[in-house]
Write a sequence for this structure.
């Protein structure tokens, strides 16, 4: 009696302005579309993740290559990469309970349990929320810190810029800066990825003797150890990069952690 | 057969979606700063257009007319998400530059326009060909605009240096304006001018005449 194919044919034979048909067609279309979308998203997720991870590794490796002598030091120390550890940003301690291999700072920043809202007056980078924990990448030889790489992010002109900042052992001198992700205006703001511009950052000081974060991007020509030339036609992108350094090196970012590191604990 | 081929060939120049129907302008401004993004966007749009035309045309007799726009948009949006996922998975570099513009194919008037105007009323094969033709017409304009903007704005094509810029010792001074959205308006405007002065039948009759009023004394 209840033959599915007959019910189907009778459903199709209904006139198009019939109420059951309208609801039926809407439901079927919605169902089929959602299945197709979620299936493709689940199947392709690992490939996208792998692509992103490769990209990140490449950028870090490329950044290490720009540092003179870094490869030799690493060979000497007998390591082929940086050691990744997770830091509790609030206290500045290492969070040993979190596996660095599995921690994803980007998705944690959207998870209410693993993130916090940034107070508006402290939010110089325009991020609104940040994860409670952040990975740091360390290069050590005989327990002596040689280089530290911090992930930083902030809002530029039209996109969130993600970058890696390498600091030298004094935790004040920039060893290198590299952009991991950005979607600024092609040809203008997108020049933040320009290696020539990023090279300007190397050797600059992020903070003065009193510990105040003083790094900035200037219009016109930069003078002194705390200033970097802006990108022409992309003032707001350049300021965005400076602001994200200020935020992430400040009290709300890696400040407590850097303080602990410089105390040598 | 000849009439089927017309579905492809007509929209390429004579009934071009951008220059005659003035559809899909927004994305034509946004993604044409370089040729490679224009090409990826063209391919993505053409694929979406063909698939959406095929699907909508194949179920056209069972789409209740009161919810037809919602059904069309749902199908188009799902296709776009799937294509976006594919681009992110397999051409990661380009996906970073296209960012949200692939997602905005959903709101591209061209896709919904062809679904509503053609695929709802025609069998599957002509609908696919119509989608392909309009996609190619859109691609042609995007490639032309993208080439002009990248060449004059940065002196390169597909990333290869054609004109050596002054900053590297050449003679070429890149035009910053070309990298900003308004330049695409100028280029598309010039293209429409060129096409309409050649095919004068494309010139639209003015619907309203401007009346000059004399100021009363």
């Amino acid at each position: 009696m209840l033959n599915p194919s007959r019910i189907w044919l009778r459903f199709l034979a209904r006139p198009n302005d019939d109420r059951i048909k309208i609801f039926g067609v809407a439901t079927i279309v919605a169902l089929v579309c959602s299945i197709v979308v979620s299936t493709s998203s689940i199947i392709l997720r690992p490939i996208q993740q792998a692509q992103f991870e490769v990209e990140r590794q490449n950028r870090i490796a490329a950044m290490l290559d720009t540092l003179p002598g870094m490869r030799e030091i690493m060979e000497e120390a007998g390591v082929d990469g940086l050691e990744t550890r997770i830091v509790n940003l609030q206290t500045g301690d290492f969070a040993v309970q979190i596996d660095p291999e599995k921690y994803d700072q980007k998705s944690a920043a959207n998870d209410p349990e693993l993130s916090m809202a940034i107070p508006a007056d402290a939010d110089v980078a325009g991020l609104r929320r940040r994860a409670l924990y952040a990975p740091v990448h360390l290069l050590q030889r005989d327990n002596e810190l040689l280089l530290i790489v911090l992930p930083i992010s902030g809002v530029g002109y039209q996109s969130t810029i993600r970058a890696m900042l390498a600091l030298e052992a004094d935790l004040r001198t920039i060893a290198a800066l590299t952009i991991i992700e950005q979607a600024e205006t092609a040809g203008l703001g997108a020049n933040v990825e320009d290696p020539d511009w990023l090279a300007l950052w190397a050797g600059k000081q992020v903070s003065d003797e009193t510990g105040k974060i003083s790094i900035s991007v200037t219009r016109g020509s930069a003078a002194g150890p705390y200033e970097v030339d802006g990108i022409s036609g992309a003032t707001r992108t350049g300021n965005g990069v400076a602001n994200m350094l200020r935020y992430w090196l400040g009290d709300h970012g890696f400040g407590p952690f850097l303080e602990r590191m410089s105390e040598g604990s | 057969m000849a009439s089927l081929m017309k579905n492809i060939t007509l929209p390429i120049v004579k009934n071009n979606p951008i220059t005659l129907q003035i559809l899909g302008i927004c994305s034509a401004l946004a993604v044409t700063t370089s040729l490679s993004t224009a090409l990826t966007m063209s391919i993505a749009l053409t694929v979406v257009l063909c698939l959406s035309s095929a699907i909508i045309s194949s179920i056209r007799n069972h789409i209740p007319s009161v919810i037809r726009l919602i059904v069309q948009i749902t199908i188009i949006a799902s296709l776009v998400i799937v294509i976006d996922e594919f681009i992110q998975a397999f051409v990661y570099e380009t996906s970073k530059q296209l960012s949200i513009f692939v997602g905005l194919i959903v709101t591209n008037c061209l896709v919904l326009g062809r679904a509503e105007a053609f695929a709802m009323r025609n069998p599957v094969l002509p609908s696919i060909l119509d989608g392909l033709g309009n996609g190619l017409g859109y691609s042609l304009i995007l490639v032309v605009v993208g080439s002009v903007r990248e060449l004059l704005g940065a002196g390169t094509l597909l990333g290869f240096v054609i004109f050596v810029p002054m900053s590297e010792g050449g003679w070429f001074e890149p035009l910053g304006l070309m990298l900003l959205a308004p330049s695409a308006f100028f280029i598309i405007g010039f293209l429409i001018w060129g096409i309409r002065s050649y095919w004068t039948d494309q010139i639209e009759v003015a619907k309203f005449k401007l009346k000059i009023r004399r100021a009363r004394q």
